[in-house]
Amino acid sequence: MIVIDERKVFEIIEERKPTSVALNGPDGILPKVQDLALKIGKKFGIPAYLLADTTWGSCDLNSIGGKILNAEIQFNIGHTNKLDVLEKNVIMIDAYDDVPFDKVVTKCIDLLKGKTVSLITDSQHLHQIESVKNMLEKNNVGVKIGKGKGQLNDGQVFGCEFYPASETMGDVDANVFLGQSNFHAAGVALATNKPTYILDPYFNEVR
């Protein structure tokens, strides 16, 4: 289940006291973003606009929509990166998926035992990368987590940026992507020319 950092949103509104705000995020979590907008309206008595236009990441914030509506703050939700603010009055808010990886990690052990892998993931699963690393290492799988660069955190990839995977590609046998995104994993495979496995916790599948 996706969990939005609502506490941070509320703290920022309490501190800055805007007269209106706007919110946007990836299409898949828009219902939760809409729920948060309703909570903001009820809690603070201000307009909280939902920008439903597709946003593809931190390079595509749809900040023009917030400006057209005269929103004093725009919260972009679900595109975690190193920077809290990318444009004036556009604040990045984390949204994490709490789906467990235990079962799918167990399924990949025989495939990866004795190898060294680069562990990477997207924004929603970044908080679980260390726990998966520990599980793999306990089962004789070597793990590297590449350093982030620019907006990227360690081990994090975007659809167009793969620095952590590129940094480790000379030291590993394969890449392991945590999540369900074939799009991100394909980019990693193309950027590194290494076998790339997806650990999909939703379908408990290694592919």
TrEMBL record:
Entry keyword S-adenosyl-L-methionine: yes
EC number in record: 2.5.1.108
GO terms, molecular function: 2-(3-amino-3-carboxypropyl)histidine synthase activity
Reaction catalyzed: L-histidyl-[translation elongation factor 2] + S-adenosyl-L-methionine = 2-[(3S)-amino-3-carboxypropyl]-L-histidyl-[translation elongation factor 2] + S-methyl-5'-thioadenosine + H(+)
Pfam entry (one): Diphthamide_syn
Entry keywords, A to Z: S-adenosyl-L-methionine, Transferase
UniProt GO BP: protein histidyl modification to diphthamide
Protein name: 2-(3-amino-3-carboxypropyl)histidine synthase
Species this protein is from: marine metagenome
